[in-house]
């Protein structure tokens, strides 16, 4: 019996080892399964949390927003959704006891990057018509940059032209002053020849007063000329920086037209020397006037004394010819300066009409382009809690051209504008993306002004490449300046006319757009509406008219998209969020975009139980991390 017992013990120990190994393997497999089950449960619970997205935001704007107004809402909801998984964990036997929010990314975080991603995620499934590809977008952007550069340079050189015209007006005043001096001198000389001392003294005083106008006019002329030179050099520097945005043909044309400004300053330098020389003999003239006046008073005193002391009836009186002749001799020494240059602006009326067009735009553009019978919305945006208030621009990102196009297309589909039929209090939502101001009136003014600038630049590019229109502008410039010795002035005025003509056509373009018509992006002779004669007529009346839609043109919304495309920045995403918040708050005043979660990460902690060989510690801690983003 003793010999047979050791086999039983051996088998018992062997089976114990085998069962221990099998149970260990089972516990290891179960533990691994526990981790996968826990991860699945955590991710599913997070999916359930994010399924509670804001329904109205999706229905109106096709974006997902998870509203989180309280601090512990996400953790509580997640724990609620994961609890059924724990209750039915069965074989895996576990419990989650605590949850901690590790990260919460709001839709307003990171310079609007998440809002952009939501839009792109939706728009990739949209159906587009006539959306340009990337090469087409590059062409459009290049054209817009060229138009903007040309418009900016035209505006600067236009101001220089007006300064040059001011110089010409000062020349006119100087010539008028010198002519007046000559007339006064002749009148005074006539009084002397008629022995009229009182009349002479009055004219002498007038002449002295008129001569003293010259230093002030010279100073004014010098001030304007110096400022013109300084500003012209700044514009020249700006033009050099803009050359890379201009095509070769536009560069050549602009250089040719703007070289007249340099020529004007060079020729004006010669004229300025003659002007400044006028001040040289003022003191000499004043001295001779003083001597003439003094001698005239002496002559009158002699005559008065002679009359009072003479009792002889046969006395013929003093020799008036000799006495007044001494005054005439001194008066004759006065030399009134002459000026060889004349005013270069002969038709000031047409020149003022051109300036009036510019002033009309600057004073009240909206009334100039708004169709008759139409009114601007009086909507006011309550921007106290707008997401855009937190935007700083510190983390600005550069979007690709296609991303830009998709964003502008999204906005045109979901936002209203001037031509939209909307019962909303705030109607101009796309215009707000451009202006970012607190009233509809201000936003449409900004949008219309930007469209006008685009159209003005593109119109001027057309004029610069159209020889027929350039010749018309040159002819009008010649009529305004006349045939003078200061030929460069005609070149200045011609370029100014082309700029104002482009502006006038732009006014007509914007007016047509606001009427719901289409305007060609690149003008041709067939799509050009405003003649040069019509420009002058409209400037006189202070009103512009235009109608008719261009084939293959763009409508008002299309031009708003162009502005957004050309000036794209992260700020637009925040302004879009402003609009979304404003509209969603109509149903829920507590709604804020800053409460909306885009991505979240939660860490859960709990315990799981050993089914085999728990020993002294039948439970062990478990931890899981899960994250979700729309």
Tertiary shape: elongated
Which structural class do you get from the secondary structure elements? alpha+beta
**Secondary structure: number of strands:** 4
Look at the structure and give the mean pLDDT.
88
**Strand proportion:** 5-15%
Radius of gyration: 43 Å
Largest sheet: 4 strands, antiparallel
- The ordered string of helix (H) and strand (E) elements is HHEHEHHHHHHHHHHHHHHHHEE
Q: Uncertain regions: pLDDT < 50 for 5+ in a row?
A: none
Distance between the termini: 76 Å
Element layout with pairings:
Blueprint: H1 2-50, H2 55-61, E1 66-67, H3 73-87, E2 94-106, H4 113-123, H5 134-193, H6 197-211, H7 213-242, H8 248-277, H9 282-309, H10 320-332, H11 348-369, H12 401-414, H13 429-435, H14 440-465, H15 467-481, H16 488-514, H17 532-541, H18 556-566, H19 571-584, E3 596-609, E4 619-629
Helix pairs in contact: 1-3, 4-12, 5-6, 5-7, 5-10, 5-14, 5-16, 6-9, 7-8, 8-16, 9-10, 11-16, 11-17, 12-18, 13-14, 13-19, 14-16, 15-16
Question: How would you sum up this structure, described in words?
Answer:
The chain has 630 residues and is of the alpha+beta class. The chain has 19 helices and four strands. It has helices at 2-50, 55-61, 73-87, 113-123, 134-193, 197-211, 213-242, 248-277, 282-309, 320-332, 348-369, 401-414, 429-435, 440-465, 467-481, 488-514, 532-541, 556-566, 571-584; strands spanning 66-67, 94-106, 596-609, 619-629. Strands 1, 2, 3 and 4 form a four-stranded antiparallel sheet that branches.
Quick synopsis:
By secondary structure, the chain is of the alpha+beta class. The chain has helices at 2-50, 55-61, 73-87, 113-123, 134-193, 197-211, 213-242, 248-277, 282-309, 320-332, 348-369, 401-414, 429-435, 440-465, 467-481, 488-514, 532-541, 556-566, 571-584; strands spanning 66-67, 94-106, 596-609, 619-629. It is built from 19 helices and four strands.
């Amino acid at each position: 019996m003793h010999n047979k017992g050791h086999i039983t013990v051996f088998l018992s120990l062997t089976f114990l080892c085998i069962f221990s190994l099998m149970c260990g393997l089972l516990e290891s497999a179960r533990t691994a399964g526990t981790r996968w089950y826990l991860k699945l449960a955590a991710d599913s619970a997070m999916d359930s949390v994010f399924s509670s997205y804001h329904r109205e935001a999706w229905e109106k704007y096709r974006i997902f927003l998870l509203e989180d107004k309280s601090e512990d809402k996400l953790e509580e909801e997640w724990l609620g959704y994961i609890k059924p998984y724990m209750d039915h964990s069965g074989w895996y036997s576990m419990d989650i006891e605590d949850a901690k929010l590790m990260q919460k990314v709001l839709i307003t975080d990171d310079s609007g990057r998440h809002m952009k991603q939501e839009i792109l995620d939706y728009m990739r499934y949209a159906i587009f018509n006539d959306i340009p590809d990337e090469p087409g977008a590059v062409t459009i952007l290049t054209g817009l940059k060229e138009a903007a550069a040309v418009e900016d340079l035209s505006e600067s050189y236009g101001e220089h032209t007006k300064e040059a015209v001011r110089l010409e007006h000062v020349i006119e005043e100087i010539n008028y002053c010198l002519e007046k001096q000559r007339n006064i001198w002749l009148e005074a000389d006539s009084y002397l020849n008629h022995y009229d001392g009182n009349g002479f003294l009055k004219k002498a005083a007038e002449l002295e007063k008129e001569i003293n106008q010259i230093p002030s006019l010279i100073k004014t002329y010098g001030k304007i000329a110096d400022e013109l030179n300084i500003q012209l050099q700044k514009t020249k520097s700006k033009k050099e920086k803009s050359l890379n945005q201009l095509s070769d043909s536009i560069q050549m044309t602009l250089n040719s037209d703007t070289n007249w400004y340099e020529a004007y300053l060079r020729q004006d330098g010669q004229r300025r020397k003659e002007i400044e020389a006028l001040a040289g003999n003022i003191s000499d003239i004043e001295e001779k006037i003083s001597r003439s006046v003094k001698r005239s008073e002496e002559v009158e005193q002699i005559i008065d004394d002679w009359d009072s002391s003479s009792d002889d009836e046969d006395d013929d009186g003093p020799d008036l010819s000799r006495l007044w002749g001494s005054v005439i001799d001194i008066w004759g020494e006065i030399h009134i300066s002459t000026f060889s240059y004349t005013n270069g602006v002969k038709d000031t009326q047409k020149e003022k009409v051109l300036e009036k067009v510019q002033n009309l735009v600057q004073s009240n553009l909206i009334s100039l382009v708004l169709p008759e019978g139409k009114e601007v919305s009086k909507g006011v945006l309550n921007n106290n809690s707008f997401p855009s208030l937190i935007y700083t621009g510190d983390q600005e990102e550069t979007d690709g051209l296609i991303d830009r196009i998709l964003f502008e297309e999204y906005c045109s589909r979901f936002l209203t504008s001037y031509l939209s039929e909307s019962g909303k209090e705030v109607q101009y939502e796309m215009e707000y993306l451009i202006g970012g101001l607190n009233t509809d009136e201000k936003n449409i003014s900004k949008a219309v002004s930007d469209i006008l600038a685009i159209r003005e630049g593109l119109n001027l590019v057309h004029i610069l490449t159209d020889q027929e229109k350039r010749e018309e502008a040159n002819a009008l410039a010649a009529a305004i300046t006349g045939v003078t010795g200061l030929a460069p002035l005609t070149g200045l005025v011609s370029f100014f006319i082309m700029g104002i003509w482009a502006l006038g056509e732009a006014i007509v373009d914007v007016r047509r757009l606001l009427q719901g018509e289409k305007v060609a992006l690149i003008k041709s002779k067939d799509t050009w509406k405003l003649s040069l004669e019509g420009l002058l007529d409209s400037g006189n009346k202070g009103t512009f008219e235009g109608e008719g839609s261009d084939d293959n043109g763009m409508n008002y919304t299309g031009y708003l998209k162009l502005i957004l495309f050309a000036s794209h920045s992260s700020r637009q995403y925040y302004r879009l969020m402003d609009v979304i918040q404003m509209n969603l708050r109509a149903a829920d005043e507590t709604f804020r975009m800053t409460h909306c979660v885009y991505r979240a990460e939660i860490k859960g902690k709990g315990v799981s139980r050993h089914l085999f060989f728990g020993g002294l510690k039948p439970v062990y801690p478990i931890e899981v991390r899960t994250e979700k983003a729309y």
